[in-house]
Structure formats: structure tokens, C-alpha cells
Known about the structure:
Layout: H1 11-22, H2 25-37, H3 41-69, H4 73-79, H5 84-126, H6 130-136, H7 141-159, H8 163-189, H9 195-203, H10 213-226, H11 233-239, H12 247-278, H13 296-306, H14 310-345, H15 350-370, H16 372-402, H17 405-413, H18 423-449
Amino acid sequence: MANVRGEFSSRIGFILAAAGSAVGLGNIWGFPTQTANNGGAAFVLVYLILAFSLAYPAFMAELLIGRYGQANAVTSLQKLSRTLFQKRFAFIVGFGGIIFASLILSFYGILAGRMMSFAIEPITQIAGLDAISGWVVTDSLIRNLFFTASFMFLTLYIIRKGVKEGIEKWSSRLMPLLIGLLICLIVYVFTLEGASVGLNAYLNPDFTRTLDPNLIISALGQAFFSLSIGTSTMVIYGSYISKKENLISLGAQVTLIDVSIAFLAGLLIIPAMYVAQAQGVAIFAEDGSLISGSNVVFVVLPSLFSSMGAVGSIVAFTFFVLMTIAALTSSISMLETPVSYVVERHNMERKKASMIIGGVIFIISAAIISNVEVLLGLVITIATEYGQPIIAMLACIFVGWIWHRNEILKELQQGNDDVENSFFWKVWPWYVKFICPTAIALVFIHYLNT
């Protein structure tokens, strides 16, 4: 029996789900960390420029492919193909995105599991369970396996429910909660000593650093990772959008929300780091780099929370719940990418497909955990620094060079009759055909040569 495809029931449902996919640890954790490591406000400025000039056009290309195809990533791309070569090329692009989404989820689950464990620690402290408090924040094989499995279970629970009752329903609940918690924490941190120094570092750029090639590469990678580009995720979400919706405005709104929440996360994390520094916690080395690197969330901020006394436990709990929610809204989209492929291409029941694929990804996570010093960095590099830019570039090539311009226009006109006269239509087709693939390729080649 054929599986019935789901569809987002409302415009706001899609916006929250797609924004949830885009808004994850890449925004709440990765963006502030990258900002602190790459010149503060200079990185923010370059990130904002690249997010709208390169990431948004590529994001729109993936959404368009999905809504036109109304199917999983591979099938949607193959519907645009006319020759055998193009169909094989479509399979490589679509299935490549599925593989990289699965790899990202394999390490994402580990990091999200750590967020869950640190959220539990304040509760166990208040309850006087000192032994458990120590265990949940101490790095160990059993701890990491347990919380990674717990996070994967939450992701599986949502995906098993399908599009409307799973992805849309839970994204609509979690995203407002995430934004509310983020704003509350920002307001609180701004009242603390040292926050104004951090705010100045975050908002006043050193324009000489904006041309630093390494900063540009980091900003581009951050823009692509935070928008879930190059993982076929947005192809899938695009396939669940009604033909009646204006795709251009939807894509712009999701991009704006994603960038805004990344900016808000910086307003929280960067001032919080300087608050910690004002209280005697070492943040930066002599060369200006972060002492704790990407572990700043697990090392520096807990030290800050501990120095706050009783209120610190509440702040710590709220912060790590925020991080867990951000991770969950992204992980459900990553798991949906391979699940939708198996459900549609192999006619497998959704619950069964979810369990099998979730189990395989957890096994990969377990392998990473067992040799984290070698495998974690390797998988992150392969998936985010190599995989995502390449797949995003190939998707732009597909839309720009293989998909006929008249067919693209017809797809955009569904939900937007006057699109042919819009600024978007006058610029985007040639932009995604020439500028996006060339710019991504140049940045990627430069990265390989450094």
C-alpha cells in the first residue's frame, strides 16, 4: 500500500518548522563561538552579508526543487531531469544530501545529549543528589551513550508522528518557547557587570578584519550550516509546502528568523562571556582566541552560573533547556531527510523506517563516542566543511543549468501570480546560475589550499 504524503497545514506551521530546522546549535552555540573566535562584530557583519547574498539564494533553490517535485530529495531532483546523465547526477546530489544530513545528526545527537545532561545537573543539585550531579556533567562513555540515546529517542518520537502531527505540531510548540527563553536570558545577562563590554565587542566591528579569508570561510560555513543548506532538508520541507503559498516570501521569512535568532544568541553568549571574565573566569588567551574553544558553553558558562549562587541554578537550567530545544527543532528535520527517502522509494511504513534509520544513526554516534578525539572532528569536517558546500553548489547548478527557466517561473507563479515582474525574478535566476556556484566553489577551493 502506498504511503500518503503529509503537508504543512498552515503557512505559520511551515515557517516555524523550517525556522526550527535552521535554528539549532549552529545558531545558539556555533554562531556566538565563531563570533568570539573571529573578530567579534567583524564576523557578524560578514555573516549577515553572506547569509542574504549566498545562503538565501541557495536556500530558495532547495525549497523550489522540493515543492516542484513533491517528493523526497532524490525523486524531486530526478523529476527535473531529462537525460540518463541528469538522473544519475540528481541521485548523487539528492542522496549525497541525505548522507550528510545523517552524518550531521550522528554528531549533533552527541552534542545535544550533553546539553540535556547539563540541563539536568541544576535539578539534581537542588535535590541534593550530589553523586548524580557529578555524573551528568563528567565526560564518560556511559554518560554520553545514555544522553545521546535519550535525545535520539525524542527525535524519533516526533518523526514517527509524520508531518502535521509530528514536525509541524512540535515545531509550533518549541519555537515560541525557544525565542521566549532566549529573550528572558538576554534581559537578565544585560543586568550583570561586564555585559556592556561584551555588547561593545559584539556590535562594533573592526572593518579591517572583514577581508580576512579565514573569517569569510568561517562565516560562509556558518551561514550554510545554520540554514540547513546542502543536506536535502529544505528540499524535503519544500515538498510539504502547499502550491498556494508564496514561496519567495516564505523563504525570506525563514531566513530572517534564522539570522535574527543567531544574532540574538550572540547578544546572550558574548556578553555572558565577558560577565564571566569580569568575575575572574579566564575567557581569552593572549592571542585573542577562546581558551575553551567550542567547549565554551560547557566550561565557561557553567562557571558563570555557579558564581551566581541560588539563582545560577535556575539560569543554568533555563539556558541548557534552551539549547536542547534548539537542537531538537533541527534534529527532527535531519532525521526526516533519510526517513522520507526510505518511506517513498522503498514503500516502508514510517514508524518502521524511523526506527531503523534512527538506530543506524545512533550506532554511528556510538562509534564516534568510543573514539571521540579522532572521529568527532573528522565527521564534522566531512559533513559541514566539505559535504554541505558541495551539495549546495550542485543544487544551484541543477536549478540554474538543468531546470528550464520557464518551468521555474511557472512553479514560482503558484502562490505569486505577479512574480515575473518582481525584483526577485529579475535577479535570482542568473544569480543562482552564475554567482552562487562560482562564489561557493572559490571559497571552497581557497579553503582546501589553506
